[in-house]
Amino acid sequence: EAQVTQNPRYLITVTGKKLTVTCSQNMNHEYMSWYRQDPGLGLRQIYYSMNVEVTDKGDVPEGYKVSRKEKRNFPLILESPSPNQTSLYFCASSFGGGPSNEKLFFGSGTQLSVL
Amino acid sequence: GDSVTQMEGPVTLSEEAFLTINCTYTATGYPSLFWYVQYPGEGLQLLLKATKADDKGSNKGFEATYRKETTSFHLEKGSVQVSDSAVYFCALRDRSGSARQLTFGSGTQLTVLP
Questions:
Q1: Alpha-carbon distance A44 to nearest alpha carbon in chain B (angstroms)
Q2: Per-residue pLDDT of chain A (115 residues; tens, 9 = 90+)
Q3: Are A36 and A44 in contact (CB under 8 A)?
Q4: How many Cβ atoms sit within 10 Å of the Cβ of residue A21?
Q5: Which of A34, A36, A59, B87 sees the fewest Cβ atoms within 10 Å?
Q6: Which of A42, A100, A107 sits opposite B43 (nearest CB)?
């Protein structure tokens, strides 16, 4: 089954404790992206990747890191989480960043709480 | 920059009522337009899309028409069901060369009561 898999689904942590949210897709997609969803703000892009070893900042990259060492995986790293990073996070992928009518495939989300 | 404005929710309707969720956009180029739906506890799924002016996207009884003159892409359904309860996001992708893909609206929560 074609899917984007995120883990964990729920995560509670404390300020400053490094964490990683994993994302994996089995569709051989070139493009992958991370979003955060906050009430009243919709989805805002954190980072995206056009292909292996190619990453770039989205609209809200501060406090986050990403890597793309393999095509299928795109982990989101919070080196020193803070309470303002409490949010619902989504990973998404698509075949490429080219045609404007390509659809994104989303994971089920990771609810992160930073205390 | 690009932006999408959706009508604020939440929207509560009775089953079989008519639904309209308004969406307007601003874009520097000539965007493609999308509606995504998020069911409780799930990620977003593409509901429908339109890539040029006057195109009508449709799926599962939902429709939206790309109106370039009013920069709008309103979502409609003639008769909603309880199973349509979800959050609906309007989105655009500008074809001006950016690789950032979608710009989303803030989402509209729809609740349909039996």
A1: 7
A2: 889 999 999 999 999 999 999 999 999 998 999 999 998 888 899 999 988 999 999 989 999 999 999 999 999 999 999 999 999 999 999 886 555 557 889 999 999 999 9
A3: yes
A4: 20
A5: A59
A6: A107
- Tokens representing B86? 């979800």
Instruction: Select from A48, A92, A109 the Cβ nearest to the Cβ of B99.
Output: A48
B90-104: pLDDT as tens digits: 999 876 655 556 889
CB A31 within 8 A of CB B101: yes
Here the tokens at position A14 are 């404390």
For residues B44 and A103, what is the distance between their CA atoms, to the nearest angstrom?
11
CB contact under 8 A, B93 and A43: no
Contact in structure between B37 and B49 (CB atoms under 8 Å):
no
